[in-house]
Amino acid sequence: MRALVIGAGGVGSAIANIASRKSFITELVIADYDASKAHAVTQKIQDPRFTSVEVDAGDLAALEGLIKKVNPDVVINAVDPRFVMNIFNAAKNAGVNYIDMALSLSIAHPTDPFNKVGVKLGDDQFAQHDAWLSQGNYALIGIGIEPGMSDIFARYAQDYLFSEIDAVTILDSSSLTVDGYEFAPSFSIWTTIEECLNPPLIWNEGWHTAKPFTGGVTFDFPEGIGPVECVDVEHEEVVLIPQKVKAKRVTFKYGLGNDFIEKLKTIHALGLSIKQKVNYRGMEIAPRDFLASLLPDPATIGPIMHGKTCAGAHVAGLNKEGKPYACYIYNVVDNEWSMENYGDQAVVWQTAINPVIAMELIANGTWKPAGVVGPEWLEPKPFLDLIESYGSSWHIRDEDPAGIGA
Ligand SMILES: NC(=O)c1ccc[n+]([C@@H]2O[C@H](COP(=O)([O-])OP(=O)(O)OC[C@H]3O[C@@H](n4cnc5c(N)ncnc54)[C@H](O)[C@@H]3O)[C@@H](O)[C@H]2O)c1
Fold it and tell me: Cβ(187)–Cβ(331) under 8 Å?
């Protein structure tokens, strides 16, 4: 499989790193608008199958030109979500398959954003399903850890564990700390703000929205992470899971902890979350980009980071025997382990294995995606069966059948 990875940040470089250990990858080109970042990835890997180039994901013609030149089997988008539609469209125009880990952006309802749904995450991509299908290409969207493995857990729960599902709650948290920093998001601050400050999306036999930082629960995360305050946020799983898993309710509760929540509220109150450019003494800069420039680069904090990251799906309903049952299906990665074995920090490594596992399943013909599909469109077991061969693991922890509330 020949792959073109666009974005040589935390996730893109980890994808390259993991893919370099896989023989089904025959060629991988990694591209970034910062050519030195892409070059650093290939320098680190030292694999003759891997090369780097420069491309601006904001330039559709340049993207199409690069895709045609490289002629890959698949384009992997690992740039921030602002560029999803450009890379998705460039792949489609070039007639090439596409994989990403974040869906096209939402647009809040113009007059009633906290009660009514506007344009949902991924709507712009799903609108093109028929065109991709008739072209004979696939776009596998949202195949990171969350969305991604979390969606596969939900589909597994439906197929193998439950006869009826009341609620799927995606719960994510960590015990990660970064030496010397009071505030250091473990992945793109741009995405963190987008997820946490947009109106949370809720599936309750139909899509609804709510106010940010609502739906709070304290969930006891496994493997020593312990109890963390979680709130509803806007996340792709709430769009994707209800399309293939028959659940009455689907939410995403992000275990940010009270301290992080308060800092995000302050960032928002000060206007530093604004993504549109403002003029400062003749200089055009988006406050959110400026904030990002002050924070440590998530791709490089691995050596000073400690702790574990956890992602999973809490599912409650009736088991296959019709008895009340609940469980948390999860994946935990220890930063010390991922740094020692791959040199990638835990969050980006935990994200990056998923598109590579997907590529392996597509390359060997086990998965045959067609059109625009999410991870839960595909058979979950072969994916879960491969996780251990990538050095990771997944677990099922029984939970109180009464559910987690909220
Ligand atoms: N599904 C998941 O579990 C999950 C988890 C983490 C991140 N993600 C997604 O993965 C993607 C990458 O995240 P990351 O943490 O690696 O971000 P990052 O900020 O570390 O990396 C992004 C890279 O894109 C490059 N870039 C930015 N603008 C560009 C442009 N115009 N043209 C070309 N390159 C450009 C940057 O130089 C950087 O190297 C994001 O879309 C993020 O939302 C998904």
Answer: no
Q: Is the peptide bond before 147 cis (omega within 30 degrees of 0)?
A: yes
- pLDDT tens figures, 94-148: 999 999 999 999 999 999 999 999 999 999 999 999 999 999 999 999 999 999 9
Q: Supply the residue whose CA is at minimum distance from atom 25 of ligand 1.
A: 7
User: Please, is 270 exposed, middle or buried when counting C-beta atoms within 10 Å of its C-beta (0-12, 13-18, 19+)?
Assistant: exposed
Residue 208's beta-bridge partner residues? Answer: 202
pLDDT value at residue 117: 97
Alpha helices by DSSP H, listed for 295-403, are: 335-342, 346-363, 380-387
What tokens were used for 356? 């590579």
> What is d(CA 368, CA 393) in angstroms, rounded to the nearest whole number?
24
Q: For the packed helices 149-156 and 236-244, what is the interaxial angle rounded to 10 degrees?
A: 30
Which two tokens mark 73? 């089997």
Inter-CA distances, 204 with 230, 318, 385, Å: 19, 18, 31
Residue 312 alpha carbon to ligand 1 centre in Å: 22
Ligand 1 geometric centre to CA of 61 (Å): 20
The model carries a pTM of: 0.95
The DSSP 8-state label assigned to residue 144 in this structure reads B
Nearest CA to ligand 1 atom 11: 78
